[in-house]
Amino acid sequence: MSRPYRELDVFASGPLSGNPLAVVHDADGLSTEEMQRFANWTNFSETTFLVPPTSPEADYSVRIFTPDVELPFAGHPTLGTCHAWLEAGGVPTGELVMQECGVGLVPIRRTGAGLAFAAPPLMRSGPVGEDDAERFLGMLGLDRADVVDLAWIDNGPGWVGVLLPSADDVLAVELDPGTDRHFDIGIVGPHPPGSDVAIEVRAFFCAGGTPAEDPVTGSLQASVAQWLLGEGRLEAPYVAAQGTRLGRAGRARIDLDDEGAIWVGGQTATTVTGTVVL
């Protein structure tokens, strides 16, 4: 069956500078196995499938897959899928677009600079145990003395956050290519005062036996904001850079609304349109 298909560039600061996303429209009727097989074939960090919502409050529902597993939530697929849904003629029932996914309903708003999603609550937070800390830092080639702070900041994928003294320290980290255990690690460090961006972020993961770095990661940007704003280490609004070591120039904008909710925004652009036979 032929289905509408789009590829998008998300959290970009210019052409082809963000994180690519594949979106399959009208995916109702596809099995989980068929979705996973296609996501493995695209080999993007995430591929999403638009299906009818089950909640009366939702405008659409999305299923999010890496090449190896389905995720309950991810940030750049949230913004990219919303862009694709709107571009295909989707009309929200309210002022906000309401996305349904594995973590429930995620509000998305349209801004002058693109789209922004409301950060979902952390599923796990607080200190990281010594055994886990030693393992995570070993993967990054770091010692405890190199680290300012270390905490669980999991909003679905399983993130642990590592705060380093500076952006240069973040960019210098080399992931151990021999590790084969599942992990989701985000590292962050501040840029000097007066810089165009406040922090540098990198995201490392291993879901299928091969460690990798993600170009720009909305879920991590959300949980980093919740962590560092909550501890008073940052002030919003701010802009975070990600993807630098991969030759990208991803940018995520973090805002706080009047109620104290954190919004993670960025630019989105369609790069490919067509159909896919699934």
Produce a short descriptive summary.
The protein has 278 residues and is α+β, with helices and mostly antiparallel strands. It has helices spanning 32-42, 75-87, 130-140, 167-172, 218-230; strands at 2-12, 19-24, 47-51, 60-65, 70-71, 97-101, 104-111, 114-118, 124-127, 149-154, 160-163, 183-190, 199-206, 212-214, 238-242, 250-256, 262-277.
Please list the strands of the largest sheet in the order they lie side by side: 1-2-3-4-6-7-8-17
Question: First CA to last CA: what distance?
Answer: 5 Å
Specify the structural class: alpha+beta
In angstroms, what is the radius of gyration? Answer: 18 Å
- SSE succession: EEHEEEHEEEEHEEHEEEHEEE
Q: Tell how many strands the DSSP assignment holds.
A: 17
Low-confidence stretches: none
The DSSP helix count reads 5
Strand content: 35-45%
Shape: globular
Helical residue percent band: 10-25%
